[in-house]
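This part of the workshop introduces the protein records we will be handling. A record pairs a protein's sequence with a compact description of its fold. Backbone structure tokens are a discrete shorthand for how the chain folds in space. The question running through the whole workshop is how a given chain folds. The record below serves as our worked example for the rest of this section.
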Amino acid sequence: MGVMVFSLSLYGETLGRAAGADYSGEGAIAMRGIVRLAALALTVPVVGLVGVPLAEAVVLARRWLSAETLIVLGVAAAFFVSCWNTFFGGGEVYFETTAIVLVLVSLGRWLESKAKRTASERLRLILPQRVEPALLLDVTGGVAEVDPGALGVGDRVRVRPGDLVPVDGVVVEGRAFLDTSSLTGEEQPSAVEPGDRVLAGTVSQDGALVIEVRAVGADRVQERVERMLSEALHAKAPIARVADRAAAWLLPFVLLLALGTAIARWSLDGPEGALLNALSVVLISCPCALGIATPLAFWVALGEAWKRGALVRGAEVLEELARAQRVFFDKTGTLTTGEFELEGIELPDGERIGEAEALGLAAALEQGSEHPIGRAIVAAWQRRSGEPPEKVESFRAVAGTGVEGSVRGRQLRLARSERSREGGQTRVVLSDNVGPLAEFVLAGTIRAEAAEVTRRLAELGLEQTVLTGDGSGPAQALSRALDVPVEHSLSPADKLERTSAGGPGTVFIGDGLNDSAALAAAPVGITVSGGVGRSLETATINLLRPGLGLVPELIVLARQALYTARANLAWAFGYNAIGLFLAASGRLSPIFSATAMVASSVVVVLLSGRLARKRSVPV
């Protein structure tokens, strides 16, 4: 702003001369020199603080044919010609051009760096920091905390309720329900007992286990998933920036045009006129607008995405999302909540109690339960009766099997049915000492917004497929509910294969460790709020608010950003084409060229700013 204040007085002198004013007096000459020196003094810190680092970056990166090179060239030409005219010549000075270009370019770089830094810091805050040691059992029965990497095959470890299983191994003592959704994608907890195999990364929900280690290091299933993840990450190709591709041919063209202009105008306007015309060519083409046309549109969109509740890792991600053609969904924790709903109560032949009484007895057994099945039964009872469950006595949880206790003096047991998982359903049986009393049918809960999200994605023209580790029953039930194709019984490797085969325009949405390789392999990987740490690290978009409702909004926003970036580029190219023609023909002064250059950047900023003000446009 200081440079502009002094430059305005110089502009006023130029306009005054055009109107016939006389500035040849000693006082006018002295004042002109003071103003130029003041403008120079204020420009030097700008050049040192932001211009020199920009030039150093170009040299260190050796990106000679890039937008940054043109910026450095244009700024250097304006600055050194201005310095020469200040001390040795009487020509014009362009200190305001030097300062404005550097400030605008640096502001854009700062905004991009700030967005990336903020995203990185925010990501570290939401990533789980839980790293648990393994409880190693010695021959005397003692327990020592050790790093899981220090375990060997044959060692035995204890896993308490709520603990992560640290190794691949076999259960030798205890029973428990294991939550395997983060590794296998299976929604239902799995019951394990002595002799059953368990995998690292699963969680014991309700029982203590002793596990004998069978695989360590790279042999673990979790490590194999990690290797697939690493391969998928390295397979990604970076997206080249449009401005850099344009600058690859623009720089030599502008240099040749400036040289040709100087030669052509030498005989017409003399050496100084030829130099000024050549300088006009360089200034009018200084690609401030071209350099920020694409990134500025995406910077604004990144900020808007953050306000709406999504952490997007860079402009390239939005560009890929704008070109999305197909979407692959994980099922568990993505399209479903991981919770259950009671769908029905079946009574055996010769029923001894009614449905209401059976539900009340089961709710009494499950009151206070943190298991998803228990919560669903208690919630169903409270909706039906509006009263809390009855008191239970002699309660006991049978790890990996169910619960039992006494209600009104009646010994009861609630355990998983042998018919569980039929037709995509989970079944548990309530029984007493005589036999079964009732069978409860439960099903996983689809997210409330899932149907609307899939409908809106279909309206946006995207193909949709669900990839799940569940069996055919749950897959068919979900397909009927959402009217979306579902591929079932898939391993993490299968998901990776399907996603990789999707090619450009593929989006994968998931939440678990089993999704990590697919999230990394897809051009755009989206993880839902609450996803596990590895999926958060590998996804390119993290939804920070619950639900999937933001996904269609993000696609629309990405398309708006790409449209705006293209409009910015069209303006920048059009401006450069017309400006270069006028400058090369001697119709533009360096002052006007510099002003037009700044004005072109303002147009780009205004066009990009519309993204923050528009919530919806036709797609």
